[in-house]
Amino acid sequence: MCTIGAMASHPGRAAFNWRVFLEKYGAIFALIGLFVGTAVLEHLRFPADERAFLKPQNLLNIVSQWSFVGIVAVGMTFVIILDGIDLSVGSVVALAAGAGMYTMNAVAADHGSAWGILAGVGVCVAGGTVLGLINGLVIAKGRIAPFVATLGTMAIFRALVLAWAQGGEIRSSVSYTAAESFKFTSIGGGSFKLPTWLGGSPATTIPDGSEVSAVQLVLRYPVLVFAGVAILGHLLLSKTAFGLSVYSIGDNRRAARYAGVKIATVTTLVYTIAGLCCGVSALLNSSRLNSVSSSSLGLFYELDAIAAVVIGGTRLQGGAGRILGTVVGVLILGVVSNMLNMLQVSNFYHGLVKGIIIIAAVLVQPRNSEA
Fold first, then answer.
1. What is the third-level CATH fold of 20-175+188-201+215-363?
2. Which of 41, 118, 193, 256 is buried most deeply by CB count within 10 Å?
3. What's the whole-model pTM score?
């Protein structure tokens, strides 16, 4: 009754919910605060000639370095909105990359480097998609809890690539001729220079008469791929009936079933999309390194991807979340990592900071009253 009276005395005014506000926009304000705080900290601690955080190229490098995880995090957003989890993403990246590298070497040996690269690209992306499909079928048709199912496939996929590579690396054996302008390493390691007016510095002449050459910003291809995957993911979630089904299942599975949503089909497709994103990340990773480490590639990707999704405001209970929030979460992790490196904090403590950020992000999320 008090609530009704309060609403009656203030017609047209709804009570402001700080928790909902933080859930929707908290990640953006956190990124702004972290950005400003890091800049101020660097200004106080380092002389002017040693400050690098605010330099445009450093900011582009942060996005580039975290694009590989960001692509995986886009797929993880679908999974968590569905009220699922995928612990196998790192192993999927490693196994898909290993299969693609092996295929590229085998085909290139018989048909030339161009066909080898095409085959490797196809197997990398298709391999991740198939592994995601396997996860989806095990969960949807086998009726196994996502945590248990993907915990099992995480071990299986990692064991397969370890056995394949005998615990070592699968290296590219593709050779190139001078006439070949495109290389496999160009996919994940390539870049192009931005016009000087977008940043950097033009050529200048200093007082002693010598000339300082122009510095152009470099944008790497993985950043563009990350942006493209994020845009497609956003459109799929927000503009299609499939996206509506994902939200409805995550919000109330029983109600979605009564509404005629094909839960098994949607679940399978969601994990397949997550696998596709892993396949794209596997391609970029293997191309950038020109090799695949069976033991370290994709390691802790599940932690970073889940962290980015949760920090971005997606509810762990499912039913709510946005791709934009995940992108912001990836940027937050990137800035935090850059800040810790700048302050020369030991890598052993990076996981500690990530864990604290995850817990803080979950604390501001709405929870059921009985929780």
1. ABC transporter involved in vitamin B12 uptake, BtuC (1.10.3470)
2. 256
3. 0.87
